Protein: DNA replication initiation control protein YabA
Amino acid sequence: MKDRNFLDTVMEFEQQLEAMQEQFGALKQFVALMMEEHKALETENHHLRTRLEELLSNETTVQAIVEKKGNSLDIGEGYDNLARLYQEGFHVCHVHFGSSRKGEDCLFCLSFLNKQNV
Structure:
């Protein structure tokens, strides 16, 4: 009788270890995903800070252009800005606007940009 109890206890312990191993594997995957997302956000943050510094250094130029145009924007300027954002790796479509494209082309964005161009 004692041998049977001991064997049951060992088998139960083995099942618990397997369950913990599965949980640990899921936790490792989650941590890897979070690290990848963190790295992408760091890269995007660095890119945005660099872009902001460029814009701030050119602030006087922008102010002069706005004053010259009398605060009216050219119709093509909005399209140019969206096209630039797309080239910098961001979505411009209504589905994923502003999120990173991660280097892949987006059919929604391309369709939107082609409509604007026509």
The chain has four helices and no strands. The two ends are 85 Å apart (CA to CA). Residues 94 and 108 are 8 Å apart (CA to CA).
